């Protein structure tokens, strides 16, 4: 017998849609919610189920209000919906059910003289309609089966469209955050750049980098991280990177550059709590020196042969942390011809390293880097990222985005310059 709100429990309450094999149709694995105020019609549906869909669990309610309570408890695979209910008439009943959930197939039930409203219901989003008095068991089972399959196809198509839109959005953000280096003249510096999205992000986060080489061989490098995740932070990162490149091309460097970048951040950020860390470098090939300006960003790894050291020059607060009151400074370091300098965002060392709450940290990253023996910069970077991800595997991988840049002098062009 049909189970209504009175408490009879011979029928299942539903558990969401399940993928179905066309060759094997197990009615017992599905569930249906019947919304029908006429007991005679409800008994008719019970007979149709017994003959055309044996074993199909169904719950019976008498109004849209009761249907919403049932849907709140768990979604069935299909709703059989009468369009003449005590609290909703015609297409209003369909609209109210779909307003609550559009994840369930709906088959509307109409009277003999109301076939047109059944067609209208399909146009409004129902998967099918059945005319009372003309329903045979085979027609009934086919209608329910096809309705569920159509809804599954709709949901799969919607998921595919959403995935494609995310991919397109990701591509646009990637072009903005992770651009092609702008190099004038012969390349002075060899660059290895990597980006890894955090495990929870469908889109890129706020990590960004850029490289601009001037005609005299001087190379300007930027790496930064906007706090937070999501499209707003990514858009802010794009704005900062573009502003930085514009300032470099306008010959604005050092502390003046940071103050202007902070103005851009303050204008672009969507909340007062948003800030950005960054490190800006100026690499001068004529004396193998690097001018470092740091705003709240982590230090760097200096790699010479098999030796790896942590380099962290004095800096100042992150952009936006103390608006209009921050003080920064620049410091010069040497980058020998046989050395490489690796910059990164904090996602590389903030991952948990075991089943507890310990994080890798800066010291842990340095020790990890010292265990990587690969001589080739690209292999070194990839292996270091892989090992950091492996350590965080117990927590599902690195939670934050990771941007990495490895810089070393281009030996061939430096040798040509020295001749």
From TrEMBL:
UniProtKB keywords: Hydrolase, Phosphoprotein
4-aspartylphosphate sites (modified residues): 82
Signal peptide: none
Keyword Phosphoprotein in annotation: yes
Response regulatory domain: residues covered: 31-147
UniProt cross-references to InterPro entries, sorted A to Z: Bact_Sigma-Reg (IPR052016), PPM-type_phosphatase-like_dom (IPR001932), Sig_transdc_resp-reg_receiver (IPR001789)
Keyword Phosphoprotein: yes
Source species, domain of life: Bacteria
Pfam families, alphabetized: Response_reg (PF00072), SpoIIE (PF07228)
Alphabetical list of PANTHER family matching this protein: STAGE II SPORULATION PROTEIN E, STAGE II SPORULATION PROTEIN E-RELATED
Name this protein carries in UniProt: Fused response regulator/phosphatase
Species assigned in the record: Nocardia iowensis
